[in-house]
Amino acid sequence: MFKEERSASMFDWSMLGDISEGRPNLGHTMNVVVYRLMQFTLRDVLIRKVGVEEADRIFYGAGEEAGRQLYKNVLTKKANFDEFINELQQVLKELQIGILRVEAANLEELTFTLTVAEDLDCSGLPVCEEQICTYDEGFIQGILSSHTGRNFRVKEIDCWCSGDRVCRFDVRPAQ
Q1: In a domain, 5, yes or no
Q2: What is the pTM for the complete model shown?
Q3: Structure confidence at residue 1 (pLDDT)
Q4: Overall average pLDDT of the 15-27 stretch
Q5: pLDDT value of position 79
Q6: Has residue 11 been placed in a domain?
Q7: Cα 155 → chain centroid
Q8: CA-based max dimension of the chain
Q9: What is the pLDDT of residues 46-79, one digit of tens each?
Q10: Which pLDDT does position 38 carry in this prediction?
Q11: Does residue 67 sit within a domain?
């Protein structure tokens, strides 16, 4: 499944398996600590092997692919942007990824300020003066580009780890 080298993604939603069959007693949920243990140890190894910039590119790319896959397999195509955002908010909350809020939106220019409260990646971490949600930046790009057919530049501008209590993202069309 993952042993061959390739340039294009070969990920398929079916690779996630049948959770109900495979985890009849433990189910779909797990402790956030386990997710963060995997994420931060993987990030640590990547930084040691390829450096911070490349690790960030990898995490952004993984988030982008995850966003595209979530859009394709979980979200439904909505013509109305408000309906799309409502469904996205519901899905992110149901999956316990975070609580999405649109602080500002200019639909003509496709610019947005989005916040995610109770973010899976960082809410509750110690303040370290960094924005660490690179995966989330890619995730948002993947979802929005799948919905609009346009690419975006998504940049985290506030983070729990930089002392804020939500993660805030500036979203603009890619140049």
Answers
A1: no
A2: 0.93
A3: 55
A4: 92
A5: 85
A6: no
A7: 12
A8: 48
A9: 999 999 999 999 999 999 999 999 999 999 888 8
A10: 95
A11: yes
Question: What pLDDT is stored for residue 123 in this prediction?
Answer: 92
Give the total residue count for the chain. 175
Is residue 7 one of the residues assigned to a domain?
no
**Mean pLDDT, the chain, as a whole number?**
93
What distance in Å separates the CA atoms of residue 158 and residue 101, rounded to the nearest whole number? 14
Cα–Cα separations (whole angstroms), residue 81 to 10, 102, 114, 118: 30, 12, 14, 24
- Domain assignment of residue 128, given as a range: 16-173
* Beta strands 111-117 and 152-158, pairing class: unpaired
pLDDT of 3 strictly over 80 = no
CATH number of the domain encompassing residue 132 = 3.30.1380.20
Distance CA 52, CA 33 (A): 23
- Count the domains in the chain: 1
Cα distances (angstroms) measured from residue 166 to each of 12, 56, 63, 95, 157: 31, 20, 19, 18, 10
Three-state SS sequence of 99-145: EEEEEEEECCCCEEEEEEECCCCCCCCCCCCCCCCHHHHHHHHHHHH
Distance between CA atoms of residues 114 and 103, nearest Å = 6
Q: Where are the alpha helices (DSSP H) in 18-107?
A: 19-22, 32-50, 52-73, 81-94
